[in-house]
Amino acid sequence: RADLMFGSKDAATRSLxxxxxxxxxxxxxxxxxxxxxxxxxxxxxxxIDAEGAEYDVISGMRRSxxxxxxxxxxxxxxxxxLAQAGRHAQDLTDLxxxxxxxxxxxxxxxxxxxxxxxxxxxFR
Length: 124
Known about the structure:
- The protein is an alpha+beta fold and about 120 residues long.
- Helices cover about 30% and strands about 20% of the residues.
- The chain is built from five helices and four strands; from the N terminus they run H-E-H-H-E-H-H-E-E.
- Strands 1-2-4-3 form a four-stranded mixed beta sheet.
- A hairpin with a 2-residue loop joins strand 3 and strand 4.
- The protein starts with about 30 loop residues before the first helix and ends in an 8-residue tail after the last strand.
């Protein structure tokens, strides 16, 4: 959907939870299914910017976060978009904590950095 704040021509602001007209329907799959299909052996850093669907993205990559243990997960957390999805920043923090990550004090241009809290010395 388009974001009424930006208009339908701004492709950077599409969101499943947008409040504007439907622009396109696209197929989606979980990150975990992609990792399994491609036999991804290692992931060091994850960056998520899903325009309000961050909780769903993290939910669909739980197995990969737990098994592959990326050192850092960086998530854009925009309260307005999360609210449109019926979520809050704390929901993301709680879900990532369940996967072994803690929210750091570091932010990168509005993106929150989560660091692995378990298994840091295992570099398999």
